[in-house]
Design brief:
By secondary structure, the chain is an all-alpha fold. Helix content is 76%, strand content 0%.
Length: 207
């Protein structure tokens, strides 16, 4: 008998097809109208599935949003890590900025959806599978920043991890706070850059 993967059964193919249709409908509706103006019934109609079927894949609209946004967040994290790893000999600040730039751009691509997504990750049930996946992605950002900071001889692993947590808090507040909603992307990013520079400056000088 030949090797390779076992073929997917008809039932599993049907489940995958329904999930893909639900994701596609949710992605389109959230992008066009924003999460607050979309109902799960609308998503079910767009996916051509019964509302009860939709709830088998996501029990709330928040979970639907997280499922959709996790895909975009993952792509932003991958892009940021690749950009950061390509920066060498530029001190501590520039690699961190390279890592977080795609993440900030992703959150602000659709402000309502991005802000709601981050709030749901932080304040929602961490045991829910979609949130677990999103929190894992957030952990990749924090771990990536930690790794970049430990390239500096004067910054130890424990200190780098603490600084990474501070930096991720800066990103979260700057991209979700209502006071910053009407600022341009570049203004928000410039402010984030200044805050990170101020956070790292004493440690860079010590290094």
């Amino acid at each position: 008998m030949g090797g390779g993967h076992m073929p997917i059964g008809r039932r599993e193919r049907a489940k995958q097809d329904k999930r893909e249709r639900i994701m596609a409908a949710a992605r389109e509706l959230f992008a066009e109208h924003g999460v607050d103006r979309v109902t799960t019934q609308q998503v079910a109609r767009g996916a051509d599935v019964a509302i009860g079927t939709l709830y088998l894949y996501a029990s709330t609209k928040a979970e639907l949003l997280i499922m959709v946004q996790n895909e975009k967040f993952a792509a932003a994290v991958d892009s940021g890590l690749a950009a950061a790893n390509a920066t060498t000999g530029q001190g501590a600040l520039e690699p961190v900025i390279a890592l977080i730039r795609p993440v900030v751009q992703y959150v602000r691509e659709h402000l309502e959806n991005g802000r709601t997504y981050l709030r749901e990750l932080v304040f929602g049930d961490p045991a829910e599978p979609c949130r677990q996946a999103g929190l894992t992605l957030a952990g990749r950002v924090e771990d990536g920043i930690t790794g970049l900071l430990t390239r500096n001889e004067g910054i130890g692993a424990v200190e780098a991890a603490t600084l990474a947590r501070v930096i991720t808090a800066i990103i979260h507040i700057s991209t979700t706070a209502t006071a910053f909603v009407h600022r341009s992307d570049e203004a928000v990013f410039a402010d984030i850059r200044e805050q990170i520079h101020a956070t790292l400056a004493p440690h860079i000088r010590a290094a």
